[in-house]
Amino acid sequence: MSVITTSWESLAPPLVLAARLVLALLFGVAGVGKVVRPGSAARAAVQFRVMRKESAAFAVGLGAVELLTAAALLGPPPLATAGCAMAGLLSLSFIAISVPALARGDRFACGCLFGQAHLSWVTPVRAAAMAAGALAALVVYLTGAPAVNAGAVADAIGLTVLVIGLPAAFGTYLTVQAAHRERRRA
User: Fold this and answer.
1) Other C-beta atoms within 10 Å of 58: how many?
2) Contacts 24+ apart (CB under 8 A), 60-63
3) Quick one: 97 exposed, middle or buried, by C-beta within 10 A (0-12, 13-18, 19+)?
4) What is d(CA 85, CA 73) in angstroms, rounded to the nearest whole number?
5) Which of 89, 125, 111, 148 is nearest to 37 (CA)?
6) For position 3, what pLDDT does the model report?
7) Which DSSP symbol is given to 120?
8) What is the DSSP letter of 118?
9) Which residues lie closer than 8 Å to 111 by C-beta, 6 or more apart?
10) DSSP sequence for 143-178
11) C or N terminus of the chain, fewer CB within 10 Å?
């Protein structure tokens, strides 16, 4: 009988790379949404009380920062380190504006993910998970970037698909169930 042991050194590369990929995907989608359709993000900035009046320039600028963050996250370790720091700061900032809005009872399109997401308590929880992933990866990079090999890349892609795919599949399931209930009522 053999005992399988795994050290942190063997787990770090795929976990850190998966965190970077997930964050890059989320920031990339959010950034494109703001650049392509700045109106919803501009409205959300007013509703979050970040801006006094709608500003497409602010929304596009924020989208550009998110796209730069995504690009940095996909870069080599010096850029990835900066990308992790930027992702962490953006995520913590989003928590700082979403929690007070929720506490006020506000519910509106948050300007995230092509403006489709609506503000709920899931919003700051998602941002906290993003901040935790970014900050954990940042700590790993600041203490020495892990060596990445082909196996780590494959594992990271698998983890990324799992982290993004499961919530997406569950969301699709809930949408189909809601549509089915509506059809049965009609």
Assistant:
1) 18
2) 60/34, 60/35, 62/34, 63/30, 63/31, 63/32, 63/33, 63/34, 63/35, 63/38
3) buried
4) 9
5) 111
6) 45
7) S
8) B
9) 33, 34, 40, 41, 42, 43, 44, 45, 59
10) T-PPP--HHHHHHHHHHHHHHHHHHHHHHHHHHHHH
11) N
How far apart CA 137 and CA 131 sit, in angstroms, is: 10
pLDDT less than 70: residues of the chain: 1-12, 113-116, 145-171, 173
In the block, tokens 């500003």 appear at: 55
Would you mind telling me the total number of residues written for the chain in this entry? 186
CA distance 76 to 172: 34
Q: Which two tokens stand for residue 22?
A: 């997930």
Where residue 144 falls (left for φ over 0; alpha for ψ -120 to 50; beta otherwise) is left
- Determine the pLDDT at residue 28: 93
Q: Where are the alpha helices (DSSP H) in the chain?
A: 8-36, 38-47, 56-73, 77-103, 122-142, 150-185
- Specify whether the CB–CB gap between 29 and 114 falls below 8 A: yes
pTM over 0.90, yes/no: no
- C-alpha count within 13 angstroms, C-beta hemisphere, residue 119: 24
